[in-house]
């Protein structure tokens, strides 16, 4: 196991310990979809809840539960570990949305801090592992949406000069250059984060020398960068 993988394992284990203070409570919600038996199962200690139930709740709309934030907070260690290891039967992008809806960043400082440690460790482990359990695009999308910014993660990618990081770059380019979707790329299940301007600038400047792909020299991409830059400046407050 690599150093990055050991750090991720440690972050996930720390997440379990930190969230252990979240005790079981009587879960109430939509009995049509889950039935009394399902609600009873969700009221049990965390380790007694089946994987399929965790996956189902992970992507379920908040209106199904009387206390969605508390339920999602208690299930967070199971949900996040399953996402990171590629075992969750749900769209990774939707998990970011649900975490935002549950208000994860406003949880008690130790809980939110443990999650932030996982995001960083997961991204570092991804950049050192190819192939990774979750695609680099989905991983980047989740941590971007859930933290509200893509640039810190791109900076980490730029600073990581490993064969795995370069292989992920190639995969990412092959993905986002299909029909030049990069020029209007949004991240998140509901397109919560408009990543195109930052990604385009990063690909064409910071990491361009690491990519042997002639498509990145297409004038259309440079025009898109210039357009995005003009739009950003025009949207900024007037300068004195």
TrEMBL record:
Superkingdom of source: Bacteria
Official protein name in the record: Uncharacterized protein
């Amino acid at each position: 196991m690599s150093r990055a993988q050991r750090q991720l394992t440690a972050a996930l284990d720390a997440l379990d310990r930190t969230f252990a203070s979240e005790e079981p409570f009587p879960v109430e919600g939509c009995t049509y979809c889950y039935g009394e038996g399902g609600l009873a199962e969700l009221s049990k200690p965390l380790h007694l809840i089946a994987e399929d139930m965790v996956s189902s709740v992970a992507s379920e709309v908040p209106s199904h539960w009387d206390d969605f934030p508390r339920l999602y907070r208690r299930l967070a260690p199971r949900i996040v570990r399953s996402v990171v290891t590629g075992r969750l039967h749900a769209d990774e992008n939707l998990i970011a949305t649900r975490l935002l809806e549950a208000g994860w960043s406003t949880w008690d400082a130790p809980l939110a801090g443990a999650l932030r440690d996982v995001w960083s460790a997961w991204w570092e482990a991804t950049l050192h592992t190819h192939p990774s359990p979750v695609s680099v695009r989905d991983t980047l999308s989740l941590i971007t949406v859930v933290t509200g910014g893509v640039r810190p993660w791109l900076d980490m990618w730029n600073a990581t000069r490993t064969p795995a990081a370069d292989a992920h770059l190639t995969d990412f380019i092959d993905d986002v250059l299909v029909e030049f979707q990069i020029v209007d790329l949004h991240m998140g299940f509901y397109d919560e984060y408009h990543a195109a301007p930052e990604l385009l600038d990063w690909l064409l400047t910071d990491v361009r020398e690491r990519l042997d792909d002639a498509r990145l020299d297409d004038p259309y991409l440079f025009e898109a960068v210039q357009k995005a830059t003009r739009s950003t400046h025009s949207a900024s407050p007037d300068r004195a």
